[in-house]
Write a structure and sequence with these properties.
By secondary structure, this protein is an alpha+beta fold. It has one domain. The chain is 55% helix and 15% strand. Strand 3 and strand 4 form a beta hairpin. Helix 1 runs parallel beside helix 3 and helix 2 runs antiparallel to helix 3.
Length: 159
């Protein structure tokens, strides 16, 4: 249940922030949040990260749908896992689903967070992308740091 609650919160926050940015910002124009370091800069990304697979909407939709189904399966298998692993899966599912909504609705993902120093910028991203990244970091860290001495993960058994 926690898994789906986290995912739902991510989707709500992601979609709400995207709608606000779409209503208040012009494509390409920047608004400073924290000086030049963090800005709002509206961008429509028809591809995956860094524009990879631009123009391949069907492939991206298929990959995302398969990922969402796999994440739901893993959530079931890890329903007794430590709380951080369940939260991380919720973050990843919410992020994947938030970007899936954009792809289905318009064929591209709304990105708007622009971060960097001077002309050295990170690719523009959104709340869904941040949730996937944070969830993946937590999940990988959990598997690396909390594996028993036999090397087998005990995430699927009741505690």
């Amino acid at each position: 249940m926690l898994y789906f609650t986290v995912a739902a919160l991510v989707v709500i926050l992601d979609q709400a922030t995207k709608r606000i940015v779409l209503r208040t910002c012009a494509t390409g124009g920047a608004r400073e949040l924290i000086g030049n370091f963090l800005q709002i800069r509206l961008n429509h990304n028809p591809g995956a990260i860094l524009g990879v697979l631009s123009g391949s909407r069907t492939i991206l939709l298929t990959i995302t749908i398969v990922s969402v189904v796999a994440l739901i399966f893993f959530a079931y298998k890890m329903r007794y896992a430590p709380i951080l692993k369940r939260v991380s899966l919720g973050l990843i599912l919410g992020g994947a689903f938030g970007n899936l909504i954009d792809r289905v609705a318009s064929g591209s993902v709304v990105d708007f967070l622009d971060m960097g120093i001077g002309r050295y910028r990170w690719p523009t991203y959104n709340i869904a992308d941040a949730a996937v990244t944070i969830g993946a970091i937590i999940l990988i860290s959990g598997f690396v740091m909390y594996t028993d001495s036999s090397g087998e993960e005990d995430a699927g058994s009741p505690q």
